[in-house]
Amino acid sequence: MNGQERSEENFRAFQNWVSGKSDSEFREIVGQGRLNRGEICRECNFSRSVLAQNPRVKDALHQLEERLRKAGVLPPLATPRNPPPLRIKGQTEAASDAERLKRLEAENSALRVELADLRERLKRFKAMEAVLAETGRLPR
């Protein structure tokens, strides 16, 4: 079976599925304001890519959803004029504060390691200075 025949077969399967459903059955598979794509694919016995790649099925699904919206089976599409921000202002500030705190803690940790190394070196130099002072070879 070639691609065109498969496309036609998928379209017929979708049409048969639509004609065999009532409004109440469509209501049962509504999710997030539209028909559940996974459920459609399972019942029509084709892959999910058919809904996106087969233009006839894609258009038929769009028309079906529009018809169901007009019939009140699906909720109307929400069209926010100003989409809500992804984060509220306080959350953004908290996120930047958390990021800054993480950066400062990393810097603090690195400085502690460097300080420990410098203290160790200072102990060695003090020991060498004490030896030089005892032998009288301390530079003036």
Please sum up the structure shown.
Keywords: Coiled coil. With 140 residues, the protein is mostly helical.
Number of domains as seen in the coordinates: 2
Helix percentage? over 70%
Tell the overall outline: elongated
Topology pattern, helix = H, strand = E: HHEEHHHH
Radius of gyration: 35 Å
Mean pLDDT: 87
Largest sheet: 2 strands, antiparallel
How many β-strand runs? 2
SS field, number of helical segments: 6
Strand order, main sheet: write it out: 1-2
Terminal CA distance? 98 Å
Structural class designation: mainly alpha
Percentage of β-strand residues: under 5%
Q: Give the low-confidence spans.
A: none
Could you walk me through the main structural features you see in this protein, from its secondary elements to its overall organization?
The mean pLDDT is 87. The chain has a two-stranded antiparallel sheet. α1 packs parallel to α5 (55-71). By secondary structure, the chain is mainly α. It has helices at residues 3-19, 23-28, 37-44, 49-53, 55-71, 89-135; strands at residues 30-31, 34-35. The radius of gyration is 35 Å and the shape is elongated.
